[in-house]
Request: fold
Amino acid sequence: MRYADGGSLTAERRAAREGIRLEAGQRFAQGDRTSGIARDLRVSERSVEQWRRNWCEGGLEGLRSMGPAKLPKLSDVRFALLEVDWPKGRPCMAGKTSGGPWNASKR
Reply:
């Protein structure tokens, strides 16, 4: 299961949600109804239906967290370089002054 990190889920919250899904998986194995599971776990029936599909395809492993939905596109090294270079401005502007060739006042 993946959850968008737009909600800033911490590892602890992801683990807590995984625990809820695993509990639902145990209830699936007992034959419990979707509505009862949703009510008891305080989640939507739609979520439980999706979990049930994942459980049918992959068992309890299909309900485990896969980590954050998005991984950083920059490596830690490149991100550190970006933090150093960011205050310098856009690369196309590096070393340019207001008298550059695109200055409208010189036309």
